[in-house]
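QA checklist item 7 of 12: single-chain prediction sanity check.
[x] sequence parsed
[x] length recorded as 241
[x] structure emitted
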Amino acid sequence: MPDITELKFAFLEEPPFCFIGASGEVSGCDVELARRLGDMLGLASFEPIETEFADLLPGLIEGRWTMTTGLFVSEERRQLVDFTRPIWALQDGLLVAKDNPRGFRGYQSIAADRTALIGVITGQVQHLTALHNGIAPEQARMFATQADAAGAVANGMVHAYASVAMAHRGYLTQWPEMPLGLVEVPPVEKQPSAGAFAIAKGNSALLRRIDSCLEELLGSDWHRQMMARYGFSDSDIDRVI
């Protein structure tokens, strides 16, 4: 058994992965999967802790929580923390003004329009992806949260917000009145990338236990039904099993 009695789970307000419902409950596919892991590990409690993206890994390293919501795995992040086996693999997308008035088709079409501004969450991999696709550094604006970045698109401060397409779908489902739309980034600009839960280094026994549980859970009937409630297809799940 891991030398912990409760699973402190750091999350962001980013549907469909994690979000706070109308009655105050914490929901989302990452939350449900993490809660199920806590049960399988025999832990006494599950404590979701809301934070901002920039604090996810520092808080993990400092011991303020046990595990984070799913993050894209990168070599830079592997230097800081350990990752479980992948729990999803997702394509990028752009949140744009309704009806896409600038006709964006992906990162490169934003790069071609030097008057266009793109919003990214500080520290998320989409910032580097945007730069690699030709977007100039001065075209990028940094935001702390999904709500901040989406609001900036809605009020015209920026012309697109880059994140994973599934996160944008989740936001539009939760806030259908927002004058926004989704553009999926083509695979030629960015292939789907794998994400995983993160835990602090030095917890190899816990990591092995979590991975063993994930091997059992991912692709199971329970997992497929749970993920379907949040908009994931069988083909989405098949990428990581």
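[x] summary fact logged: The first helix runs from residue 29 to 40.
[ ] second reviewer sign-off
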